[in-house]
C-alpha cells in the first residue's frame, strides 16, 4: 500500500509529501454531479455502493494519497432522534433547546442505526485494496452541538451561545451525550476498516480562546482519547484556531489540521518537533492560474522546510466551482516539488 499518508501522520520520513483534499469527493467533480442529478445527497450517503463510488472518484481522477469516506458529519445525529433535511444546507426540524430535549436524545447502536456507513467502509477497503488508506471522520462535539441547537447553519450560532451562558447545565449535558456518541461512531468506523479518522471542528474558531478551553476542549479531548486507543492516527481540524493552537494541541490528536489563515512554518515552530500537521493552502488559490497554484504549493512546502510529519491539504474544503483540472494540477505540483527537496 501507498503508506505515505499514514507514515506522515506518525511523523515518519516519506519519499514525498502526501496530499489529499478535504471534500475531495464532491460537487466540483462532473462525475459526482452526474450521480447527484439522479439521487439526493442523503440517498448517496445512505447507499453504500453509491457512497463508495463517490469516495473512489477523486482517488482515480486526482491521484491523491488517501481516500476519505463520503458521508456527512451530521449523519449520526438522525438516529439520535433529530429530523434532518438538506435544503440544500442542513436543517433540523426539532432542534435541541431544553434539558428535556437532551434527555430524549438516544445513543445510536451503530451496527443497527448507521449500517450504511460501516458497509461503505467495508466496500471501500476491498476496492482500495493496496492503493491508498481510507480516512473515516466525524464532527467535533462543539460543531455538532452548533447545528443541533441552532437547527441550521449560522455565522455566529447565537442560540447555542445563549445556551452556553444562560443554561450551562443543558449545554454540558448535551456535550456529554454527543461526545459519547462520537466515540462509539468513530470506533465503529475503525472496526469496519477505517485506517485514520479526522475530527472536523468547523465552528470551534467562533469561540474566544478562553471559551474554547472551557466549552469545547474538554469534549474534543475526551473523544480523541476514546479513539486513539484503537491505534489509528487522529487528525484534529479546528477551523479558525490560529490564535489557540496551543490549546488545540492539548486535545491530544496525532495530527493538527491547519486552516489557511496561519503560516504553516510558524505553526510548526510553535507546536514543536514530533507533532504532525496537515494543510494549508487557501482553497481559493485553486481559482488561480497554474503559475499561481504552483507558486503557492512551493511556498507551503518551503514553510514546512522538509520537516517530517506534513500532509499537504487545503486549509478547508475544496469549493464547488473549482475546475477539477486545477485540483489535479495542485496534486501533481505537490508530488513533483516535494520530491525535489
Describe this structure in words.
With 341 residues, the protein is an alpha/beta fold. It has one domain (4-338): Alpha-Beta Barrel (TIM Barrel). It contains 15 helices and nine strands. The protein has helices at residues 4-9, 30-36, 41-46, 48-62, 99-104, 110-113, 115-128, 141-150, 158-166, 168-192, 209-228, 245-250, 264-271, 290-304, 324-338, and strands at residues 67-68, 84-86, 90-92, 134-139, 196-201, 234-238, 255-257, 276-281, 310-314. The chain has a seven-stranded parallel beta sheet with strand order 1-4-5-6-7-8-9. Strands 2-3 form a two-stranded antiparallel ribbon. A hairpin with a 3-residue loop joins strand 2 (84-86) and strand 3 (90-92). Helix 9 (158-166) packs across helix 10 (168-192), helix 10 (168-192) packs parallel to helix 11 (209-228) and helix 13 (264-271) runs parallel beside helix 14 (290-304). The longest helix is centred in the middle third of the chain and has 25 residues, at 168-192. The model has no long low-confidence stretch (mean pLDDT 96).
Largest sheet: 7 strands, parallel
Could you tell me the CATH topology label: TIM Barrel
Tell me the name of the CATH class: Alpha Beta
CATH architectural group: Alpha-Beta Barrel
Structural class: alpha/beta
Q: How many individual β-strands?
A: 9
Name the average pLDDT.
Answer: 96
Rounded Rg? 19 Å
H-E order: HHHHEEEHHHEHHHEHEHEHEHEH
Distance between the termini: 23 Å
Q: Uncertain regions: pLDDT < 50 for 5+ in a row?
A: none
Largest sheet strand order: 1-4-5-6-7-8-9
> Tell me, what's the shape?
globular
Helix content: 40-55%
Percent of sequence in beta strands: 5-15%
Number of domain units = 1
> How many separate helices?
15
Amino acid at each position: 500500500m501507498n503508506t505515505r499518508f499514514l507514515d506522515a501522520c506518525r511523523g515518519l520520513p516519506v519519499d514525498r509529501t502526501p496530499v489529499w483534499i478535504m471534500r475531495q469527493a464532491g460537487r466540483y467533480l462532473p462525475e459526482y454531479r452526474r450521480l447527484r442529478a439522479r439521487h439526493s445527497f442523503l440517498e448517496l450517503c445512505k447507499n453504500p455502493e453509491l457512497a463508495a463510488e463517490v469516495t473512489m472518484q477523486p482517488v482515480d481522477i486526482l491521484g491523491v494519497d488517501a481516500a476519505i469516506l463520503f458521508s456527512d458529519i451530521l449523519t449520526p445525529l438522525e438516529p439520535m432522534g433529530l429530523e434532518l433535511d438538506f435544503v440544500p444546507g442542513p436543517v433540523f426540524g426539532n432542534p435541541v433547546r431544553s434539558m428535556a430535549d437532551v434527555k430524549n436524545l438516544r445513543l445510536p447502536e451503530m451496527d443497527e442505526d448507521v449500517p450504511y456507513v460501516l458497509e461503505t467502509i467495508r466496500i471501500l477497503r476491498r476496492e482500495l485494496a493496496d492503493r491508498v488508506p481510507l480516512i473515516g471522520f466525524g464532527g467535533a462535539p462543539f460543531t455538532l452541538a452548533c447545528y443541533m441547537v441552532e437547527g441550521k447553519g449560522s455565522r455566529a450560532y447565537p442560540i447555542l451561545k445563549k445556551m452556553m451562558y444562560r443554561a450551562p447545565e443543558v449545554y454540558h449535558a448535551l456535550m456529554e451525550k454527543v461526545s459519547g456518541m462520537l466515540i462509539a461512531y468513530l470506533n465503529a468506523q475503525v472496526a469496519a476498516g477505517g485506517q485514520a479518522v479526522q475530527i472536523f471542528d468547523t465552528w470551534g474558531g467562533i469561540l474566544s480562546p478562553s471559551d474554547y478551553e472551557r466549552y469545547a476542549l474538554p469534549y474534543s479531548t475526551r473523544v480523541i482519547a476514546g479513539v486513539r486507543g484503537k491505534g489509528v492516527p487522529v487528525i484534529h481540524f479546528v477551523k479558525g484556531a490560529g490564535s489557540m493552537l496551543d490549546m488545540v494541541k492539548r486535545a491530544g490528536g496525532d495530527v493538527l489540521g491547519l486552516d489557511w489563515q496561519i503560516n504553516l512554518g510558524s505553526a510548526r515552530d510553535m507546536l514543536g518537533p514530533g507533532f504532525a500537521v496537515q494543510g494549508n493552502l487557501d482553497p481559493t488559490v485553486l481559482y488561480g492560474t497554474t503559475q499561481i497554484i504552483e507558486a503557492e504549493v512551493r511556498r507551503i512546502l518551503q514553510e514546512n522546510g522538509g520537516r517530517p510529519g506534513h500532509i499537504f491539504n487545503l486549509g478547508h474544503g475544496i469549493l464547488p466551482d473549482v475546475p477539477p483540472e486545477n485540483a489535479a494540477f495542485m496534486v501533481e505540483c505537490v508530488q513533483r516539488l516535494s520530491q525535489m527537496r
